[in-house]
Design goal:
By secondary structure, the protein is mainly α. 85% of the residues lie in helices and 0% in strands. The chain has helices spanning 2-23, 31-65, 69-81, 85-97.
């Protein structure tokens, strides 16, 4: 989940940077001055935006995909404690692996 969120954040940031560069073509003659003076500030800003995007995607993923996890795990535990033969075999296999 972390890798997917990082990938999504990087793609959104990359697309945003490309769109912004397309809009700021009139600054092309001054690119050496801008890079020399403001590269650390732009780098830190992009890092903060990446972190915020990553956090937003991670939080959204947790809310959407991990909903009712405790209830689902309780259901699985009830199944493992039941007396059905297939479940007994699974319980024995889990006990052997632990």
């Amino acid at each position: 989940m972390i890798a997917n969120c990082a990938f999504l954040a990087a793609m959104v940031l990359l697309l945003s940077v490309f769109a912004l560069i397309g809009q700021l073509e009139f600054l092309a003659p001054y690119k050496h001055l801008i890079i020399a003076r403001y590269l650390p500030t732009v780098g830190w800003s992009l890092g903060v935006v990446f972190f915020n995007l990553f956090w937003a995607f991670y939080l959204g993923g947790r809310i959407l995909f991990l909903k009712d996890t405790g209830r689902k795990l309780a259901h699985v535990e009830r199944l493992l404690r039941s007396s059905e033969p297939i479940v007994q075999e699974l319980s024995a296999e889990i006990a052997r692996n632990d």
